[in-house]
Design brief:
Blueprint: E1 2-12, E2 25-30, E3 36-41, E4 45-50, E5 55-61, E6 68-75, E7 80-85, E8 89-93, E9 104-107, E10 112-118, E11 122-127, E12 132-134, H1 135-140, E13 154-163, E14 166-175, E15 178-185, E16 190-196, E17 204-212, E18 215-222, E19 226-233, E20 242-245, E21 248-252, E22 254-255, E23 258-269, E24 272-281, E25 287-294, E26 299-305, E27 315-317, E28 320-325, E29 328-336, H2 341-344, H3 367-373, H4 375-384, H5 407-413, H6 419-430, H7 438-455, H8 462-471, H9 482-489, H10 492-501, H11 507-519, H12 522-525, H13 587-598, H14 603-610, H15 615-634, H16 648-668, H17 670-695, H18 697-709
Parallel strand pairs: 16-20
Antiparallel strand pairs: 1-29, 2-3, 3-4, 4-5, 6-7, 7-8, 8-9, 10-11, 11-12, 13-14, 14-15, 15-16, 17-18, 18-19, 19-21, 22-23, 23-24, 24-25, 25-26, 27-28, 28-29
Helix pairs in contact: 6-7, 8-10, 10-13, 11-13, 11-14, 14-16, 15-16, 15-17
GO biological process, one term: maturation of SSU-rRNA
Protein name: NOL11 protein
Pfam families: Nol11_C, NOL11_N
């Protein structure tokens, strides 16, 4: 039995996707760690993603005018990345490298078709002429001659395996309508060529293979809507130059009069394959679908319609499907269980079967699809409740016990319920703390609330959403539409809590929150509920909401001594910012900006969105960051008091990012001139102070060493002369 579970978006693919995949996706390869994938676009960029967090971990690009011509792979032994651009130029780099112009480069003597990374054998390079080399051998002499194995043939597909300690590479070629299979064993330099048995009026569209018990099983998806299986023994005794490979029918992609026109497929286990293609019934318009088939019993297990269209590519890693859907890269988790006849025809009665319908995306599934996907759970639930009288949906919501219905079916039944019934049932569902997939259920509850907000603009359960976010350990990926709706509704308190609690907020959403916070007046923010615990300890508030003058401890240098290099006036009572005021924003806005400063980000993906900040807002934000920087410098440990107060590193990082994004605008704006000048002078004073500390660092260490040597148990006065 197979099932499709949770789905989510990994990244965008359009020009605004933010990950450099505007040219479309060339390939997806496993990364250096589990849960990491490496994306290569049809252009200049490779991006490393952590799938569970939907966060990019690194992004590398070749120069303009250069093109990455085969998928970037990760060397599992060295954790280095290997790429080829412009067919012959090899690049190798590590995570810490940023500029690919400065990493290892080698120009090869022949065009590369693809690089395959093996778990224990290192990368294997396949050239367009059919030659094969391991990366280690190739690096010994990059300009070594690569002899062509094929002539007038075009490579269509390739894959590499490890059979024990032996790397094995298989690739298929096409010439004048004939298809050939090559098997290369690298260690013993053994190459076998086979010819694929022809199929009348059809040709292979896609290939996949796996190796087991010294036998390669090659699966071929043909244009006649069928999947064929070809067995290739790894050990050949015959010296025959070219053998004909016979094939056997594995699966016919048709069900109930509908035919699946497959474009790509992957093997899930010994009894299941997944096929991506267009499902068409006679007289009806074809629809692109992701399907899972049982090859043992020739049945369609599950199908998911993809209305936004796909590129025809399908990848599968760690029980997750990856494919393009519209302008995004979508991930769908799946489950495959032991194949049995009862499961294959949907008659398996197993009370222990997990509720895979806990994951429901109402944005992509229609009512009919939900009913189909929950059909088996429904039948069990209705039989167990056969004595109950169910009312018509036209009158009220069916009063079936929640324990007997799947989460998805319960949410489907509540879709047209009244607001009171809807929220009461959701609260009851959340109260079952021992239920499986509890976090996913909470995500479904929030999704249900958000979808009702979208269909009914007047409905917005602010208190309910606040209660869920404050009491549950959630993440942005579990409820991706929540912050978008909160931004639309200008729900400042909910946005603040999300920024504080969600570890995986995209940079685009973080900048959207920053723009909203900076655009609101301090007078308006005083009327709404904002958590001030991050500012209350360093911005003293009177009843008229003005900062109280407090004593300032200068951090190691005297204002009079620095007067020649720092014109900003420093007194023992107050520390003014560039415009002569105290904190440039009110305490409510300061608390909201602190929440932004605490959010996680990647500089590469934050900068483009930060550049969209209006100039006046950028100046105001920089004034506040400067104020925080001065405040931190007043303290001996450069740490602001309070809960969730920003650290000196966070302040400096955001200040540098803001200046990088808006430096030209800042220089041109008259109101920013004094601010930049004072910031420059203050930083210069700090640098001079720390350089003076460095001069006596050796003496201080010697003093510390002398104090450790002495055991001063009695009172004494010592005079130490520092030379």
């Amino acid at each position: 039995m197979a099932a499709l579970c949770e789905s989510f978006t990994l990244c965008g693919l359009g020009p605004s996707g933010g990950v450099g995949l505007g040219g479309g996706l060339l390939a997806l390869e496993p990364g250096p760690e589990p849960d990491h994938v490496l994306l290569t676009d049809r252009g200049r960029t490779a991006t490393l993603f952590k799938v569970s967090d939907q966060k990019p971990l690194g992004c590398w690009s070749v120069k303009h005018g250069q093109i990455i011509t085969c998928p970037v792979v990760c060397n599992s032994e060295t954790h280095e990345y290997v790429a080829v651009h412009d067919d012959k130029v090899l690049r190798i780099w590590k995570n810490k490298d940023i500029n690919l112009d400065k990493v290892f480069k080698a120009t090869l003597s022949a065009d590369v078709y693809r690089i395959h990374s093996l778990p224990k054998g290192g990368p294997v390079v396949l050239f367009k002429g059919g030659g094969v080399r391991t990366l280690d051998v190739l690096l010994e002499a990059p300009q070594q001659e690569i002899q062509n194995v094929i002539s007038d043939e075009v490579i269509k597909w390739s894959e590499a395996f490890m059979e024990g300690q032996q790397p094995v590479l298989i690739f298929t070629t096409e010439k004048d309508g004939d298809f050939f299979v090559y098997v290369q064993k690298l260690k013993i330099n053994s190459l076998h060529k086979y010819k694929l048995e022809q199929q009348e009026l059809s040709k292979p569209l896609s290939f996949t293979a796996y190796i087991k018990n010294q036998i390669i099983t090659l699966l071929c998806l043909y244009s006649n809507d069928s999947v064929y299986k070809v067995l290739i023994p790894l050990h050949q005794n015959t010296e025959e130059e070219e053998q004909i490979l016979s094939k056997s029918l594995l699966l016919n992609l048709s069900v109930s009069g509908s035919v699946l026109k497959g474009t790509s497929f992957v093997v899930l286990d010994k009894d299941h394959v997944a096929v991506l293609g267009s499902l068409a019934a006679s007289g009806e318009e074809s629809k692109e679908c992701l399907t899972i088939w049982n090859t043992k019993f020739q049945t369609l297990q599950i199908s998911k319609e993809l209305p936004l269209g796909t590129s025809g590519q399908l990848w599968c890693y760690e029980e997750k499907f990856f494919f393009t859907h519209g302008k995004v890269l979508t991930v769908i988790m799946y489950k495959c269980e032991t194949s049995s006849l009862a499961a294959a025809v949907g008659k398996l009665k197993d009370s222990q079967t997990p509720d895979v319908s806990s994951f429901v995306d109402w944005n992509t599934l229609g009512d009919e699809e939900l009913v189909v996907s929950f059909q088996s759970q429904q039948s069990v639930a209705l039989k167990s409740e056969s004595r109950m009288t169910l009312r018509s949906k036209r009158n009220t919501v069916a009063k079936v016990q929640p324990d007997t219905l799947s989460v998805g079916q319960l949410l489907l039944n509540l879709k047209d319920a009244s607001t009171t019934v809807f929220e009461d049932e959701l609260r009851q569902l959340m109260s079952k703390a021992q239920m499986p997939d509890f976090q996913a259920t909470i995500g479904c509850v929030i999704t249900a609330l958000i979808n009702r907000c979208k269909t009914n603009p007047k409905y917005y359960p602010r208190n309910f959403l606040l209660q869920i976010v404050e009491t549950r350990d959630l993440s942005y990926s579990l409820c991706p539409d929540l912050m978008a709706v909160a931004l639309e509704k200008k729900d400042i308190h909910l946005l603040q809590i999300c920024l504080q609690r969600f570890p995986d907020i995209p940079e685009e959403i973080t900048c959207a929150c920053l723009k909203v916070f900076l655009s609101m007046s301090d007078a308006y923010l005083q009327t709404i509920d904002v958590n001030l615990e991050s500012v209350i300890c360093y911005i003293d508030i009177e009843f008229n909401n003005k900062e109280v003058k407090t004593e300032i401890v200068e951090n190691g240098f005297n204002a009079e001594l620095e007067k020649d290099i720092w014109d900003t006036k420093i007194t023992n009572e107050t520390h003014r910012t560039a415009d002569g005021e105290f904190c440039p924003v009110g305490p409510q806005k300061a608390a909201l900006l602190n929440a932004v400063l605490h959010s996680a980000y990647s500089e590469t993906f934050l900068l483009p969105h930060l550049k969209n900040l209006p100039a006046q807002q950028a100046v105001l934000f920089l004034r506040y960051l400067y104020y925080l920087y001065v405040k931190c410098s007043e303290k001996i440990n450069t740490t602001l008091p309070g809960i969730r107060s920003p650290t000196i590193n966070q302040i400096m990082d955001w200040m540098c990012l803001l200046l990088d994004a808006h430096f030209t605008v800042m220089v041109m704006l008259p109101e920013a001139k004094e601010l930049l000048s004072n910031l420059h002078k203050f930083v210069r004073a700090q640098v001079r102070f720390y350089s003076q500390l460095n001069k006596i660092e050796g003496s201080l260490r010697e003093l510390q060493r002398l104090n450790h040597q002495k055991d001063s148990q009695t009172y004494s006065i010592e005079v130490l002369e520092l030379i």
